[in-house]
Amino acid sequence: MIAYDPYWLDEDAEELPKTTLQGLRSAIDNAPGRPDPMSWSEYLAAPASQQLDYDRARRLYVKRTLRVQTPEQREAHSVLQRTITANRNVPNSRRAVMVTSPSFFGKTDLALMQARSVERGYATRFPDYRELGHAPVAWCEVTPNTTGKSLLRGLIEFYAPGAPLPRSLSTDEMLSIAGRVTRAHHTRLIVIDEANHLGGREPAGFIKLIQNQLSSTLLLTGVDLLGGRAFGTVEGRQVTSRSIVIPLKKVDLETDSGSELWTTWVAAFDKHLPLCDHQPGVLVDNLRVLHRATGGQLGYLALIVTQLVDNILYDFDRSDERISTDRLWAVIDEVQCTRLASGSMGRKRLVAPEDLVTPSARQDHAA
Fold first, then answer.
1. Measured between alpha carbons, how far is 229 from 201 in angstroms, rounded to an integer?
2. What does each C-alpha distance from 19 to 42, 153, 172, 205 come to in angstroms?
């Protein structure tokens, strides 16, 4: 009998946004472990309800937990720890941390990992912090319509969604409330996701005000934060000059370090795929194909893995769960279509079905 926490199986339950305290804590806490391996024959012998639960548990594991370590994650962890500590002893002009890259590089995932790390580190020191009303991390998301005041309003409402907040409040009053709320909740880190949508002078000026008047450290993520309209102004450059910038880059397979890193990522995904009777090897054998299809971007590689598992588990007429050439090609081509539509891949596909190393070819080569 396989036992799972029913929470993990409620895959269709509405997820609360990370822009609320409850939603962020749900995202931080809900990282289910890998379900126990099951052979295909054991799976077929299980009752239909148990098969469904097992499929849901596996999809949630891939969606929420299956991740790989990156050099930028380690750098961000080290930089944030130092910056949070230093900012607590600075009266104003506190430093921020910026994570920037093009789309599909895993910026939000990286920010969530850092939020989880800060929260768990705080829990080590203060085990009953939630009962005390502490919230060491806050999360804001920026839209193209975000203004400076709406950014402050979103930060205040993070702690108490729906709480009455008069529209007539001035900037100084909003900033004062935000300062009191973050101090009352002992907030160490404020994540501002999609910060590239901050439009020009006014919102950038609000970031500067937050750096000056709130003791929390800012972690800003977004596309082209250094050269975009959000921080390309004089006011914006005042923010970037006070920030530690961590760029996320494509992996270059032609360098020793890039080849080692890409191989490590692909092998980690390959090893931990929660499929019945899964034998690692097919993804690793096709790591160069995967690199061409994704452009060396971790976000696209993770998308291929997630979609591969989804396609297999949502095929209710499947006769096995092996990674066949057809199954792998289907998700690779989906990603190529996505990249073509976004303009990040030129005008033609870089990978064709015949480029894939098939399981039989791999076995022949090994022999």
1. 9
2. 42, 11, 22, 22
Query: What is the number of other CB atoms lying within 10 angstroms of the CB of residue 105?
Result: 24
DSSP alpha helix (H) spans, the chain: 6-9, 21-29, 40-45, 48-64, 71-87, 107-125, 148-159, 171-184, 201-213, 234-240, 256-271, 282-285, 287-294, 298-313, 325-342, 359-366
C-alpha distance across the termini of the chain, in Å: 39
Cα-Cα-Cα-Cα torsion 277, 278, 281, 285, nearest 10 degrees, comes to 120
Distance CA 225, CA 220 (A): 9
Q: Is the dihedral of CA 184, 185, 186, 192 positive or negative?
A: negative
Structure-token pair, residue 94: 């506190």
What pTM was estimated for this model as a whole?
0.86
pLDDT digits (tens, 9 = 90+) for 104-158: 888 999 999 999 999 999 999 999 999 999 999 999 998 888 888 888 999 999 9
Hey, what are 35's tokens? 């379900």
